[in-house]
Amino acid sequence: MPELFEPRIVAFFCNWCTYLAADLAGTSRIKYAPNARVIRVMCSGRVDPQFVLEAFAHGADGVLIGGCHPGDCHYQEGNYSALRRFQLLKHLLKDMGIEEERFRLEWISASEGDKVRAVINDMVEKVRALGPLRKYPVVGGPLEEVAAYG
Amino acid sequence: MAEKPKLAFYWCAACGGCDEAVLDLEEKLLDVVSSADIVFWPVALDFKRRDLAAMADASILAAFVSGAIRTTEQQEMVRLLRSKSQLVFAFGSCSHLGGVPGLANLWTRDTIFQTVYTENASTPNPDGTLPQLITVEDGRELTLPRFYDTVQTLDQVVDVDYYLPGCPPTPKILLAAVNQLLSGQLPERGAVLAPDHALCEDCPRRDSHPDHLALDQFKRPQDVLIDEGTCLLAQGILCLGPATRSGCEAQCIKGNMPCTGCFGPTSRVRDFGGKALSAIASVAAAKEEAAILQAFENVPDPIGAFYRYSLPSSLLRRRRLQESGQLEAAHSPTG
Hints:
Distance between the termini of chain B: 57 Å
Structural class of chain A: alpha/beta
Low-confidence stretches of chain A: none
Number of helices of chain A: 5
CATH topology of the largest domain in chain B: Rossmann fold
Mean pLDDT of chain A: 92
Oligomer: heterodimer
Shape of chain A: globular
Number of helices of chain B: 11
Number of strands of chain B: 9
Number of domains of chain A: 1
Helix content of chain A: 40-55%
Number of strands of chain A: 4
CATH superfamily of the largest domain in chain B: NADH:ubiquinone oxidoreductase-like, 20kDa subunit
Largest sheet of chain B: 5 strands, parallel
């Protein structure tokens, strides 16, 4: 039987909602897929598109951004900034051959530990079905593979 | 009299506009050749590869290379220039960031050849002849350089000492670089020889930029009458001034056209397109998905808009390829 592909998901969670939800999931002993590497940011609006591109370039198979629900942002409007960038970046990534299921934005409040489980499990399964983004990361991979010389 | 320092110019995947920029020095070019010898410049002077190969290593003070790298010939020539030159300057957007030819990284050699040699209506090719690496004719073997799937920037192929940004670099930028070079006043190695702040700071329309921008809809330049005195972004025109390095003397803005980012990023930015996208997304007013999609309806090709000059230097470098070398077919790029 071939070895099961374990997707690497980089998850940017905002300090005030989604990171607390992940914390709640932990203290509530909610079990979910261990594939997400969580990075805490102060706000989903702090996620520069360069962070997402860098994650994909360094070998992430998926990138998840978690922020406060609309209207609930600790900084009033940071999550709306995140949503605008997300929409435009998703379009750009699709044109670069990166499937939509690999890039996701979710609103998860501090009380929604169970949603953290559901979202991560769902994303891991979808990305697992797609397979690895690429054999080697763009950054640090062997140049001939990365540049795909003909 | 001491021997004059030697300069070389070479072009790779480029349009020739950078060489035009050298000629745009006008009579100042005479000052340059009075204090330096141009020992290699195939587009303007009759030098061959063998002339360059015969020169001693590091005998050229500086080589100015325009154009991106997309064939084995270009790769070989820039490696040769690197060994013959003390300093290598990436000259213009294509060698600096990949440039417009770098947008070919949305395709592969096979798909490009198919379009250019078999599908273009204006190219009759009934036998479907494609360029071959080796062709034998009358017992003689003819060769062509290999064409890579992926366009690279100059610094992805050889070490680069300095960068002259722009499509093309302005004569002012070029002259300043040559003067710094000849007077031994170059900054730290690796520097981009242009101001390190955004174009907006030097924009002649800066005063009309509102404190807070909130746009409902971006517009394409051909669809609107553009006011000549007002900030282009404030008029809904996608202008990359906020994300682009200054130094171009705002020539496009003065021509009533938006900045498309040819000077590339400032030193604090790693991925120009990512940062430009971020800057543009930030000035939209919409807060809901449908309204956001509506606001960006006139940005149908984000790669062309944000990576017009910089796809090969971006973090992802190119559109994804499957392991088989086929393009990943998740979505066909528009435009």
